Amino acid sequence: MDSSADSFSLNDSRPTRVRYLVLAGLSSGFLLAYLPRAGLAPLATTIQQDLSLDDLQMGRVLAAFYAGYFLFQIPGGILGQKLGNRLALPLLQLTAGIANLLTALAASFGLIWFSRLLLGLAQAGMVPCSAQVIKNWIPEAKRGTASSLMGSFMSVGSIIATGVTAALVDPLGWRLPLVLFSLFSVCWMLLFFLLFRDRPQDHPKTNHAEVELINAADRNTVSENKATSSPPIRQLFIRMVSNASLWLFCLQSVFRAFGYAFFITWFPAYLQQSSGASVQKAGLLAMLPLTSIVLGTLAGGRLIDLIYQWTGNKYFSRSLLSAGSALICAVCILLASQVPAEDAVYLISCGTFLSGMGNPAIWVTSMDLGGRHTSVIIAIVNMAGVVGGYLSPIAVGALFTYIKEMPVPEWNLVLYLFAGIYLGATLSWALINPRNSLSEN
User: Where the protein is mainly located, per its record (predicted)?
Assistant: First the structure.
């Protein structure tokens, strides 16, 4: 790796733009990560028929990813600290590609369940590692926008996976699209390793002006961190346990992940069951809420930065914005229960647009609450979200079974469940104080 003195020129006054290349690399990595994560949803009914799985078994298969994702959150973040993100992120992406190949080869419940568990383990470290990359490469005033790109490209991956697998399942079967997703992951792994460096000053294409631009806002914080040693582990643990905002932050993550998991697991099957739509039509309709999440996330990232610049108030730009968007999302889902299922998709999509506006706040609030301990906090909050993501497909699978046994199936019960989930997220966000940082004594 190049030394800091050789990697950028001290004479250039205009900042280079390598940070945008880094953002593009992270964004495309999240897009590819969500191809196998969301690509199984449109294939669920086909896989059930091929492998003779009932709804409860398929729910466990869809939930297995979240079990692995939960277990490897903090170890994945530590892996990035130990190896450096230049090595850790490609390694995680490669492992995810191998896991997805196992899914394509599965011929039984046991193997497909294990492959999804391994996929969750492989992808668990991506968020904490990427949060550290954003902190190292993006100026503080632009981190809301940068975080919105991460969140939006997650949903872009979900959209592509949903549309592509729904279109290819008839001509190619359910296995070949998963093999293609794995090949894309291997290509990304090689490119990211060649083009990325852990620190701006180590990249051969950055100049002094860009490094100064990135680090200017954090210079005072860095000086304070050098002067003040990190608290002992026991003291840090006490601060986390006694921080009410952190508990509420974890709780909103449970609710939001529970809601989002529905759209990348059971939603196409819900459309098939409630409206009689074909696999292809359900797959296309399922893309609408995911597209809305992308647009909402992009709008939310910019809005977070603007509100903070206008008011200087982190509660308004983080908590209040997220609480309001989750509340309107819940209202939209309730209204969707009053119209035909296919028409309800449009109201649900309005709701997911609003829910997406709160996505960047999760990244930025993790930095606000965590301070020097950002990677630890975002790993903990992500683990909390995994609980919701794990419970969602299991709960919906059980609810599907219950609804099918009713004399007259009442599919609106699914919508009532998720309206309640987003109301829970609303209350949690409304009580979070992003100024209550763990770095404060």
Answer: membrane
pLDDT at 226 over 80: no
Helix and strand element counts for the chain (H, E): 22, 0
With a threshold of 0.85, does the pTM exceed it?
no
Per-residue pLDDT reduced to its tens digit, 378-397: 778 888 888 898 899 889 98
Cα distance between residue 204 and residue 208, in whole Å: 11
CA distance 389 to 119: 14
Closest CA to 294 of 422, 164, 151: 151
Domain 17-215+234-430 has CATH 1.20.1250.20: yes
Cβ-in-10-Å burial (0-12, 13-18, 19+) of 21 comes to middle
Dist CA 237 CA 260 (whole Å): 30
Q: Which amino acid is at 279?
A: V
Q: How far is 60 from 266, CA to CA, in rounded Å?
A: 12
Q: Which residues contact 109 (CB under 8 A, 6 or more apart)?
A: 51, 53, 57, 61
Q: How far apart are CA 325 and CA 334, in angstroms?
A: 15
What does the CA dihedral 19, 20, 26, 32 come to, rounded to 10 degrees? -160
Half-sphere exposure of 186 (CA within 13 A, CB side): 10
Q: How many CB atoms lie within 10 A of CB 239?
A: 18
Alpha carbon separation from 280 to 166, 171, 273 (Å, rounded): 5, 12, 13
